[in-house]
Request: fold
Amino acid sequence: QVQLVESGGGVVQPGRSLRLSCAASGFTFSSDGMHWVRQAPGKGLEWLAVISYDGNNKYYADSVKGRFIISRDNSKNTLYLQMNSLRAEDTAVYYCAKDNSFWGSYTVYWGQGTLVTVSS
Amino acid sequence: DIQMTQSPSSLSASVGDRVTITCRASQDISNYLAWFQQKPGKAPKSLIYAASSLQSGVPSKFSGSGSGTDFTLTISSLRPEDFATYYCQQYNSYPVTFGGGTKVEIK
Reply:
């Protein structure tokens, strides 16, 4: 069965960086697009970024464009989110999610999430 | 960006009730709409995709309809395990956007 396990969350000071990872199993990782979505405490879902199956296409939400970088290593079945210049408003649970296709579909499966807290 | 407006933001219902949640897109998204269920402390779970297709393993009491800009999620005969927050998602174009959520609570 599809399994997505996020890691790398924690407490970080404003302005610092953090890299999240998402280990995938149970499907052919190199065939599917992948997303990052976050949820601030008590708030709704906010989509952040998508990467195509081969890593050649990426798209970002305006709220993180220029600060966050999505990437993947298909040899390791792992998705990444490099988060730079972190702000208090980036505090959230971060989910990775599998696209239903190689690109441009919905988020069919989700990981359990990892909490990022940006605070001094 | 395409704005997704869900209504109501919350509702109270009883076990056995039929519930309908509405999602409106700010522009035509054809049928590129998905619905998700989220329980407290858990990840969202896919229920419906392509506006009306049931995700594998999801009970048939969940149904979706609509196209263009107006969509609905219907839950027939609410059970205790159905009390959760529901979100719509458009994937017609990037950025993907979500509705604000509808919290279904026990009356």
User: Anything to note?
Assistant: The mean pLDDT of chain A is 97.
